[in-house]
Specification:
By secondary structure, the chain is mainly alpha-helical. It is built from twelve helices and no strands. The longest helix has 31 residues, at 102-132. It starts with a helix and ends with a helix.
Length: 268
């Protein structure tokens, strides 16, 4: 009750935040990107800038549970390719937060998420078309492979910077990284294991930046302590559900969650 009074929350508003925390646990262990709904709930119930600092420890709790569940399935070469670009994106996002107001933040992130979803759908269709015509082509020479490797590095850097920027500005890096991992052809367990370690490391590294911006303080941590208990059942249900979702449905759910999250940010 003290926490609710401190943040001037009604019972319904606290219930909404509890559901958002539950959804964080579910998204971290089942459908990554679905926590954009949590982001929208936090921003609707709490002041938008303050909500990013309050949500961060909740996300870290979900990341820890996801790492414990999928730690054997992480693909570390992909992570090492992404981290330098993500670090640059976090710095840019921190500078952006110094002057951007809530409306600019929401609009920018919403547009980015929708663009990423569109690009990923297009790339998946291109990959399917390429796979169908693969038998009709001869093996490419070394120059084609080198070109593909360069394109892969450029894609990793582009998504990495966007992921770092969006995760710093609004904790919305999940959909961006989801789009990258889907476009790279990751299957369910590899997808979840790689994203689990990625976000645990990135979110922990964001703590000093968020504290320095005044987004994390004693008041926010008190509310976090009341919400963390709801992350655990969400994670357990997500672990149970992921084995019952086939790959095609998994990809569609991730993309749909990204689109919904982007639209919510634009209309908020």
């Amino acid at each position: 009750m003290d926490t609710m009074t401190l943040w001037h929350l009604t019972g319904w508003e606290f219930a909404a935040l509890a559901f958002a925390a539950f959804l964080v646990g579910f998204s971290k262990t089942a459908v990554s990107g679905a926590n954009t709904v949590s982001l929208a709930i936090f921003a609707a119930v709490l002041p938008a800038r303050a909500s990013t600092g309050i949500l961060l420890p909740v996300l870290i709790a979900g990341d820890i549970l996801a790492v414990l569940t999928y730690r054997r399935h992480a693909h570390w070469p992909t992570l090492w390719r992404l981290f330098p670009a993500v670090g640059a994106g976090v710095v840019v996002g921190t500078l952006f937060l110094v002057w951007a107001d809530d409306a600019i933040v929401r609009t920018s992130i919403g547009v980015i998420l929708l663009l990423m979803a569109g690009v990923t759908v297009w790339r998946r269709r291109q990959a399917d078309a390429q796979a169908r015509s693969e038998d009709a082509r001869s093996d490419a020479d070394g120059r084609a492979e080198a070109s593909a490797a360069r394109a892969g590095r450029v894609k990793a850097r582009s998504y990495g910077v966007l992921g770092g920027f969006t995760t710093m500005v609004a904790n919305a890096g999940g959909p961006v990284m989801s789009m990258y991992l889907l476009s790279a052809g990751f299957r369910k367990l590899g997808f979840l294991g790689t994203s689990a370690f990625f976000f645990l490391i990135v979110n922990v590294s964001k703590l000093p930046f968020s504290a320095g911006l005044g987004l994390i303080d004693g008041r926010s941590l008190l509310l976090d302590a009341a919400l963390l208990v709801f992350v655990v059942p969400g994670a357990f249900i997500g672990t149970w559900a992921v084995s019952r979702i086939n790959q095609r449905l998994f990809e569609r759910l991730v993309i749909a969650a990204t689109v919904v999250g982007g639209l919510q940010l634009l209309v908020a």
